[in-house]
Amino acid sequence: QVHLVESGGGLVQPGGSLRLSCAISGFAFSIGSMGWYRQAPGNQRELIAQISSQSVVNYADSYKGRATITRDNVQRTVALYMDDLRSEDTATYFCQMQLRTGEFSELTTYWGQGTQVTVAS
After folding, report:
1. Are the CB atoms for 82 and 89 separated by under 8 Å?
2. Phi, psi (5° rounding) for residue 92?
3. Strand 10-12 vs strand 115-119: parallel, antiparallel, or unpaired?
4. Nearest 5 degrees, angle CA 95-CA 97-CA 102?
5. Could you read off the pLDDT of 2-40 as tens digits, one per residue?
6. Dist. CA 48–CA 46, nearest whole Å
7. How far apart are alpha carbons 79 and 119 in whole angstroms?
8. CA–CA gap between residue 63 and residue 77 (Å, rounded)
9. How remote is the C-alpha of 51 from its chain's centroid?
10. How many whole angstroms separate alpha carbon 94 and alpha carbon 121?
């Protein structure tokens, strides 16, 4: 019953900014790491940023200095703020979380359905 709901995608001008958000729908017993990925047509899905359960963050080289990932454990959300967006950032962006759905369940990877980000004039 658990799934991830992404929001914030859309069309943005080159050099512009965008904030993506992802929320858990349904029950989660505990939450591990959270992350954002992108996938452009013909390319593999690649990491943008991730944040651990201890709020340790890391970013892909292409997003260092222009992206910020945050998590809210109470609201059960992860957000990604991006600026200085470029045409090559055009892709489908996916939210990912490691979740336990029950007290006896192990951490399992969950993915959102993706939200389209298009950077163009």
Report:
1. yes
2. -90, 130
3. parallel
4. 140
5. 999 999 999 999 999 999 999 999 999 999 999 999 999
6. 6
7. 19
8. 20
9. 10
10. 23
